[in-house]
């Protein structure tokens, strides 16, 4: 099997059901999800060094990588399907896991700087790439019909990655660095 097709040499790429310019907002959206997926893979590789501390997180990140492929495929379909591969159940799982991580970590009242342990920093990078993908998906949704779950999933995923980054630092004994000019912005229920 050859990895190259030469069909993209003129600046277009294949979609599910058609072709588009490589800078089309649809391609930007699913391409940015692919970029986020790569950073999640890098974070996963780093966190395996401390596998005994992160069995839950490691298995969740693999599931998320599959879901990002599903979401990208849903966005790559020129004719939107009634239902994509990604489902609301995936959004619910992210919310449930976030709640567990928020409960486990130290309470948060102020903005924090992205960073800390390398695995946490990589999850923060993935989070910001997911936010960029979300902006592309919002733009795409203004132009074309897309599965609604795609937008809610990426919105929740960025929050999940924030919570996951904090858990990595917490379990490795590294305190979050609060943004020094932050007011109290997070309140407990």
Automatic annotation (TrEMBL):
Protein family according to the UniProt entry: Belongs to the Cob(I)alamin adenosyltransferase family.
Any one GO biological process: cobalamin biosynthetic process
Family annotation (InterPro entries): CblAdoTrfase-like, CblAdoTrfase-like_sf, PduO-typ
Protein name as it appears in the record: Corrinoid adenosyltransferase
Reactions catalysed, as given in the entry: 2 cob(II)yrinate a,c diamide + reduced [electron-transfer flavoprotein] + 2 ATP = 2 adenosylcob(III)yrinate a,c-diamide + 2 triphosphate + oxidized [electron-transfer flavoprotein] + 3 H(+); 2 cob(II)alamin + reduced [electron-transfer flavoprotein] + 2 ATP = 2 adenosylcob(III)alamin + 2 triphosphate + oxidized [electron-transfer flavoprotein] + 3 H(+)
Superkingdom of source: Bacteria
Listed EC numbers: 2.5.1.17
Species this chain originates from: Bacillus safensis
UniProt keyword Protein transport, yes or no: no
A GO term, aspect molecular function: ATP binding
Lineage summary: Bacteria, Bacillati, Bacillota, Bacilli, Bacillales
Keyword set, alphabetical order: ATP-binding, Cobalamin biosynthesis, Nucleotide-binding, Transferase
